[in-house]
């Protein structure tokens, strides 16, 4: 328990609030007791006997998160006692000093992303949280396509984190800017945190989970309190040009439902479902040859490995830590490519007709689709999910299970963990979507860079659970055709 209770007289109320804390919770007692996890306490300031205490929380379980400030005067203790009370509270609230208070942040706002509310959302909901947490903000608004790339390319390396008020498009630009930085590895070591104001917001869903993935205040809390988590990124190599991809590459129906619905952005997220149904009616096979350098093909083994990593029974994640210091001694050049386009040794060609391919990392590619349920943040592997061209009814039957990743267990859904893969188009087709950006469907190859990039995370792992392994009795429902 805290050394003593503080009585806070708030102007409008006659009865003072009684504040106390344990190692894990702040207790706010008035007529009843509100318990706030210390992780959600972000700031406490006092001047003589006046106190301002800030936390991010929910009024009701189903409400989005919001900033609450308790402001008043403290009558029952002296200023120096109050000082010590605050300093212990904040020490505990910032994980015993493991999380730096008052982070120095570069904030990049895309006023043009999603429904174009990024700047307003930042000003109204996010900035007050960052200020209450005494963060230092260096704010810039993007003025054009490619601006985030330019900013990232020459970013100073001494920020504690870069905050992107955007969707996945600006994240893609930022990582590619890092790749062209004078010191790429050091640039990738600066943690990114996203305030989800785009359309799909896949990275935010993966970091914060389905419940909080679109909650901008939960995302702001992660900016203040998140710990650095290393994540794999990929090199997408096409016509000799190397592009960094942080999330996914989509082909066939999976590309059509994203890029093919770009003109329907006004719809918001439902455009992806519209694109899926339209693609299903057309039911065109994806004319590619897919080959991969596989590490694991057995879904049961992947599921077991995932569970072991989650329970930390085996050490498969690079340890989560406070933001790593930049070092002059580390190798600062971008890792070289390991595989040439002509490399054949250990490569397998998939010899079955394909409806669509998704390859990438992070469970969700959108709110309706957990494409990679067993992906791990930094195992150095890319997950390749292939929907074989079975039948319309089979693919349609899988759709309702999409948000929970249930298609993973379907026999016609092939799942491969690999170091690299390669695609050769068999006839001219439209496009491949790389993190949702358009690329022509010409021959390309993708390989992983283990733990190259860094994001802020509340958990130290992707916030999603894979669908349970089917039992003998439930297995049949995955077999419909
Ligand atoms: N000032 C601007 N005017 C026009 N376009 C911009 C501007 N700033 C950034 N952009 C472009 O906006 C694109 C989309 O941005 P962002 O990722 O924020 O949202 P989104 O694409 O709607 O979301 P998602 O990627 O999640 O679908 C980026 O490709 C970026 O280059």
Describe it for me?
The protein is α+β, with helices and mostly antiparallel strands. The chain folds into three domains: 6-97, Pleckstrin-homology domain (PH domain)/Phosphotyrosine-binding domain (PTB) (PH-domain like); 104-225, Rossmann fold (3-Layer(aba) Sandwich), CATH 3.40.50; 234-450 and 461-478, Tumour Suppressor Smad4. It is 23% helix and 32% strand. It has eleven helices and 24 strands. It has helices spanning 79-93, 118-132, 147-153, 168-179, 184-188, 202-212, 216-225, 253-256, 270-282, 299-310, 392-398, and strands at residues 6-9, 17-21, 25-29, 33-37, 41-47, 50-57, 66-74, 104-109, 136-141, 161-166, 192-196, 227-238, 241-245, 248-252, 288-296, 348-349, 354-360, 364-366, 369-370, 382-388, 413-425, 431-434, 437-440, 444-457. The strands form four sheets. Strands 12, 13, 14, 15, 16, 17, 20, 21, 22, 23 and 24 form an eleven-stranded antiparallel β-sheet that branches. Strand 2 (17-21) and strand 3 form a beta hairpin. The chain is elongated, with a radius of gyration of 24 Å. 45% of the residues are buried. The model has no long low-confidence stretch (mean pLDDT 89). It binds adenosine-5'-triphosphate. Adenosine-5'-triphosphate binds at residues 110-114, 142-147, 166-170, 173, 198-201, 436.
